[in-house]
Amino acid sequence: MKGDVSKKRIALKTGVCVFVLALVALPAVFISGVYGYLPALFTLGAVLLSFVYMRILKANLRYEEISDFQDCRRETEVGFTVKLRNLSPLVFPRLEPVFYISDIFGDDDTVTSQNITLGPREERGFEFTVRFDHIGSYSAGIKKIIVHDLLGLFTCELRNTKRHRVDVSPKIFDVSSLDVSQTVLTESERQLAPTALDGVDYIGVREYVWGDPIKTIHWKLSARGDTYLTKQFESYGVIGVSVLLDFFSPHYDADTLMSVFDAVVESGLSIGSYAEENGMEHEVVYRNKNGETRRVGYGRGPGYADIVSDMPRISATDGERRGAELLQNEAGSRYSHGTIVYCTANPTAETADILSELKLRRKHPVLIAVIPETATGKKRDELMRPLRSLEYDGIPYYVLSSARELGGGERAV
User: Fold this and answer.
1) Strand pairing of 282-287 and 238-245?
2) Coil, strand, or helix at residue 37?
């Protein structure tokens, strides 16, 4: 649509120019001598002067971007200020700063512009109000400044190569009223019964790895060396919660995909935040941009914005089995937490089988399935079908279209 409008404008300008040239050429046809060419020469001189004028203006334009994107959360408005300064004694008849925000896929999502004038030696500032509706890593700022000439025939662009990176943090919701939070807390309390972990029945020690439960550290042996050592057991369930995030999704439009990403991340982090508040061991597990498995906890690791910036973009074409592999590895791990919450937009029969396997291993699996409202009919039935086996095995699951459906209001973080 925008391309069609631009083509119409160019065609209109071209038509007007042809008409004016034909008009000023008429005297040369009917009037012999130099006077017949004066209108054409005057018009040509005016056009050339306007073009040179525009180039001088471009060379004397300075701009500065002022933003505060350090603490940006989803669906909050952030101010962005642009200061323009005219170093010349000439007047800018028309300036058009163009501001853009990318989406999480790297394409331009929102482009806005504003027409202003600038007097001799004048400095002016104007503000954009920027709103980020989805979490993730974006780039934003002035894309270019378009300078117009006096006659409105020419334009030149001052392009900005600087890009502001914006890490939009998720919202955290209160899940205390949701059944899953009560179940998680109950299951964690059940595991407070004495186990091999509480005694000295272990098979050896190894060097502590980030993400290992603090309770497994062998403090006496660690005190004798330069590194922490952790106990190795044959098998046990660690008190606490592991929240696994899957970033593969069925095919949706770009905006729905970003909404699905919001729901997966915010559901997982909200449950992890609940675990932290209740003093439980907890971790968020995901595959990062480089395909590496990351285990992070709020109390001893990065903040929300850093976690999100490390996450990959949600994809409908790549990584279909990565979530299942992550869940399978957790099922086979000796050191996984007792409660495992799996957040995904792609519930499959394979996912259901692994969750059932976790149940047999005396773990407590919980599934958060994100299915947007746009998934209707056969597509929704296909996504819901694997969940029936979870009902048979007594595995709790929750179907959400957004994290707002977690049961509680937004929490201040």
Assistant:
1) parallel
2) helix
CATH architecture designation of domain 172-191+237-411: 3-Layer(aba) Sandwich (3.40)
**Residue 94: is its pLDDT beyond 80?**
yes
| Domain boundaries, given as residue ranges, for the chain | 2-168, 172-191+237-411
- Matching residue, tokens 């937490």: 337
* Segment 106-127 mean pLDDT: 82
Distance of CA 151 to the CA centre of its chain: 43
CA 344 to chain centre: 17
Residue 188: band (very low, low, confident or very high) from pLDDT cuts 50, 70, 90: low
pLDDT in tens, 313-349: 888 887 777 888 888 888 777 667 888 899 999 999 9
DSSP state letter for 171: P
Residue 148 exposure: Cα atoms within 13 Å on the Cβ side: 13
Distance CA 222, CA 83 (A): 57
Fold of 2-168: Immunoglobulin-like (2.60.40)
Instruction: Give the DSSP letter string of 131-153.
Output: E--S-EEEEEEEEEEEEE-SSSS
Paired with 111 in beta bridges are 100
Q: What is residue 248's DSSP assignment? A: B
Entry pTM = 0.69
In angstroms, the CA 355 to CA 344 distance is: 13
Residue ranges in 150-253 assigned as alpha helix (H): 179-190, 219-223
Q: Could you tell me which residues are beta bridge partners of residue 376?
A: none
